[in-house]
Task: structure prediction
Amino acid sequence: MATIEVDDSTKRFVAFAARMAHVTEGEIVRRLVADSPLGSEEPTRATDGVPIYADYEGHRTRGLYFAPARVEITDGPLKGESFKTPTGAARAVVRHLNPSVNDNRNGWSFWQLDNGGPRVWLQSIRPTNTAD
Result:
């Protein structure tokens, strides 16, 4: 079974709607999606991730950033792993490459845009109201 993440307020509204309709929370979400203009479209995998990279301990790790905060690693030993936040991805890279140090990192300033030009931190495209 797949899961989705929502903020606490949305969770409360979905739970309330499910109680009122005497159905599961999943059924409420299914109905909302089915009733939306997107409900009739075939779902597709997001391919519009922003290419990013991080240089750490002499290694370059590449990934894709998906707004508002998800990072998917696209090469190296962590290839295929997905993280809810840039910080989670940064910490995983640090733990993998240098397990003897504290992995506490700010992912928004750890990752850089892979734009082929000057250094631009991921922070520069961070959406407002993104906790991390």
Summary: DSSP finds three helices and five strands in the chain.
